[in-house]
Specification:
Number of helices: 14
Shape: globular
Mean pLDDT: 84
Number of strands: 0
Largest sheet: none
Distance between the termini: 80 Å
Amino acid sequence: AAVIAQFTAFNTATGWFWLDFLSRLLIVCLLCISLTNTRERFYTVIAVVAGSFGFHTAKAGVSSLMGGGLRFSEGLAGAFIDNNGYAIGMVMVLWLLVGASQNSANKWLRRGFLAAVPLTAFAAISTFSRGGFIGLVASTLVFVVLQRRRTIAVSVLLVFLLMLPLVPLPEGYTERLRTIQTYDEEQESSALSRLHFWRVAVAMAQDNPLGVGLFNYEFAYDRYDFLDGEFGRRRSVHSSFFQVLAETGFFGALVYFWMIAYSLLVVLRVKRRSKGPSLEPGDARFLETSANALGAAMAGFIGGGAFIALALNDLTWLLFALTASLDRISAAMCVKTPIQAAGIAGLLMSSARPSEPERAVSPAGR
């Protein structure tokens, strides 16, 4: 869909640049699916992704706490270079940290991953990103719903909420969140502009059903801005989903939405497989906790990504790849276990049966 949209791109150089980026990203994801084919390799990938990103987010959380609630107005680099993108990345990696902690055999690694979880959550709050807050709430609710023992998860969530007043929240954070509901009454320009940018994206898609080209929304914005620059020129779409719609057209949007929906369906399928009676307890726990982590991380992107153009961020596409890998690993586990059990049972039966020559010899003959 992106290649087709390139033929009608408003800025071909930008389109080719991001097509190159997307092709490399797809190759990495396909290699990830092919190579991540065992439980051990899956955990290694999760631990590396969570640890490399989580190191920075945990450090940011410590800095904010020690500073009495510092505010981060910038991010790291790449797709997470600003505070909004950084917040969405934090929300996604937070649940990968949880999954890595639950499946780590090393107690120090397990404790390190677990300690990074609340620090990452506080760092996401310190970005003052409303999209990050929505993503954090959405992913937490999904994580609680996915738990087999929801009472324990709800209890932990209540303890966290009770301890929240003791944490030094950044000054002005609660006032910032109130604008989510009252933006229309207060004429909050940032939130109102987003609604306008989304309408412009729909107009682009209607006029260009095949899309305007990857990251070409900004180049096409001025032509379709029916308010004639009221919110500025060459603006961003501020939504991953409307970004895909405008830049790759209706077909690209359909494919992208289906990838997200199917990932969530795969998470539910893996959870169903984890309840199989033939699975070892360790394998069943691995499948369930990994599915919960991926599902919550994807929910964080859905909630927060609706308010920032992050359709091509590396972490979301790695979630697609890891979900596919987990689907294949879980299917192999469910097929392998009954065959192994049948093989062991057959071996025991054959060893207990006398051979044909032995049964032919009478007791007297012995």
